[in-house]
Amino acid sequence: MNKLYKIGCSALCGSLAAVSAANAGGLSASGSAQATWQSNQGANNGNPIGLNSAIAFAGNGELDNGSTFTLTLSQLDKEAWSSGSLAITTPSFGSFRIGSADGGMGVGSKDDVMPTAWEESWGHGLGTGIDRVSGAGSSMDLGYTTPEVIGSTLSLQYAPKNNGVQGTDKGTSGTNTGADRKQTAYDIMLDMNKSYAYMMPNVFVGYSASEQDGHQQIADLGSEGAMDDHEELVVGAVFSIGPVKAGAQVSGEWLGNNNNVTTTDVAGYKNIAYGVSFNVNDDLAGSWNKFESKKGLVSGDQGSGPTQVVTDIESLQVSYTMGGASIKVADSQVANQTYATGTSNDKDGTTIALSLAF
Questions:
Q1: Global confidence as pTM
Q2: Is residue 135 within 8 Å of residue 108, measured between CB atoms?
């Protein structure tokens, strides 16, 4: 009897080991470091040298039915957890995702996807202060993406409370307060021709709505009253023809300030972005980008006072790659920084960066 028991246990352990080996996952790490020199004309910014590091961890595995799962964790600087996600991709039913305020797959993932040689036109260090769409992806969220059909996918995203807070296991984001007015958020994103078929653009359109509590004292509105939902919309297209990429997109944000507000309160924002990039060869690339953000005031709807203030950004960029190292230069201009007029809010600067990937 003891011999049979030992034989049975050995067989069971062997089977479990085989299953474990077949479905074993893995964990990998990658990272980068970047040193910059910032030169802003007309500004006394002290020491112009900057240093940044980034580490990303990626875990993956497979389930018995062929579904795969992926875990991503990012630390953008100083060993601080920045964002993460957990996704399960099935063979036939699309992918399911839990996000951690990382933009997700809704309107936040398309706040600015114009082609560029380095980074977004507003990411050059001059401090633009612009407001971009974020949607449910700015908070802890659940998402679903359909399988790709003719190069297109439909994504849905849901946040029980869109307050921009990251949460750990067994935790919540805390109680609601008057200024913390955003409630449940829903995003929908249609992404067409994601594979950039020849002469066919990648077209995307997305919409987000966050419920707002109009029965609490809203500190940043300076009043108490009914409020519409906080809505966001983004539409754009990117063309790819050989070494050239060109794109344009429009996004809008409506804050739901529909009554009992002062004439200086913000009614919403409208952003227009476009850009073109050109790969000279595998190592050298250049781009030009423009981003225009309009801040609309409630006073415009009431027929008095200014209706909008415009922040205008332009950036000319060049990058050269040598294996795991890249040298990047951005020459940028900002007019009406942080939606404020006057020559003191017009900035012009150059950023030089050395990036290393490992």
A1: 0.81
A2: yes
